Amino acid sequence: MGIHRNAALTVRQRQELQRLRREEGWTIARLATHFRVNRSTVFRWIHRDHPDDRSSAPNHHGRIVVTDAYRTAVLTYRDANPHHGTQRIAHELQAQFPTANNATIWRILHAAGRIGSCPKKNG
């Protein structure tokens, strides 16, 4: 991965910083003074395994795809237990489907016409 233009240290400097800390036992303050960076920058790079920049892209992309098996399980459970809400259904299906959550279950039930919008509160 390339280095961005505002980086305080180059990849070689980061490697040298890690080496000096690990092998020669330099203090954080001495490293910061030597490389002319803030102490927080030194802390950041001595604790990273690799001297390359990290991507700022998210670790997870997009929504979870709802499989037919998941959809069927939600609808079957709801038919068998019509008074259970989305949280209860999510809890009951968690062992079989670890990604079960009430928002997805609500979307499935709403698309199937098995649940409406929340009733309005009087007041």
TrEMBL record:
- One short Pfam name that applies is HTH_23
What the entry lists under SUPFAM superfamilies is as follows: Homeodomain-like
UniProt xrefs under InterPro entries: Homeodomain-like_sf
Q: What is this protein called?
A: Transposase
